[in-house]
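Q: Could you write out the predicted structure for this multi-component system? I'm mainly interested in how the pieces pack against one another.
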Amino acid sequence: MVLPFVEGFYDTPAGRVPQIKDSLALRDHWGSVRCRIGLRTDYTVQPGLYRLGGAGADSPVVITANYKLTFDTVRASLRGVDCWLLIVDTDGINVWCAGGKGRFTAEGIAEIVRASGLERVVSHRELVLPQLSANGVSANALWKLCGFKGGFGPIRAEDIAPYLAHGADESMRWVTFTLAERLVLAPLEVALALKWVALVCGVGFVLSGIGPEIFSLSAAWQRGLLVVYATLTGLLVGALATPALLPWLPGRSFAFKGAVAGLVAALVVLAPLAWGRASLLEYAILVTWATVWSSYMCMNFTGSTPFTSPTGVEREMRRAIPWQLGAIMLSIAAWIAVPFF
Amino acid sequence: MKDFRYFDGVATLKLDGETCIGCGNCAEVCPHGVLVVESVESGKKARIVDFDGCMECGACMTNCPVEAVTVTPGVGCAAYIIASWLNRAGIRSSSACCG
């Protein structure tokens, strides 16, 4: 079966190379959306050499990961450029994470260079590497392994074409984290958390029904709903609002930023929902609950940012997790105890 | 990155100025402009200009031909760190973040 992004084959001295489209079809966009919301996890393309435009023996060779989302981004950004795309097997992981986890390496590139017979396809001995693979790829080792000289290209796919034309400038070398870049990651965080939320809400309903008359279905429903509201508030603030507001939230610790945003949002959002349905103490417990969730979700967002160091993340986790656990335990105990007084 | 800052004074980045040959690889690959290469009397040398901008990705160390720059590299990801804690405690867990 010919893949939908392949529009033909091109004969080279090393064999037939798939000629790929430099535009995305609806199904490519749909695949990206499914990936972004966690409905699709195994999203890969076959490693190997692909041809874009009218690439020939002198054309540049651009290296990237075999994550389909990455592959699509790169080929769409190379519209009208004659070049080769050499896809390395990174287990379907993006460039940056694959580099950090040892799955995007000089050995892996050398292997695909050999397997594809690249030295018979192009007359030069240069490869354009994604800058963000530099944490995993040693250009020096690559040269020793396969005789191709790897030069680090830009960070963003959209800069590859200008880089090929004029070389790198500083703006291509510095990572950014714009509002759009932050928000595109948020849906996946929410999706990953939803199964935990379902579990928490289920347990919340059960615990909410415990009272002096052993178990009350009406209390389980009424108080349980409040737990659901509080949990969802914490989740959505921590996973959606804090990434959006990241530069403006106080402090440097993500757990703290999340707690601040969660506290403020929960005080406001939960007040009308709890009005007449909960005591002041219960309202305080719900606010605490939402604050902890927001704090935890925001702490998890460190993994989506391009500027948090592992030493820093571990430090803030060692400080925040005892508080988060303590507040969780206290909230649960207090929530169960309230009906007895 | 100037508009986003994480904790100051925590990075494990070290540069051995004696060993450095000033090739410029580290300055080229750093996505945060932490290192620059400058002309000195004996030729060229790398210098850390934004220590607290370092996110310990390890790109500089991986591409230093003389092991002059070192860092304890890793992924600054809470889910990944929790998974590694659990693994160390004997509990098998798959990390939720990017594979």
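A: Regarding packing and overall arrangement: Residues 62 and 92 of chain A are 17 Å apart (CA to CA).
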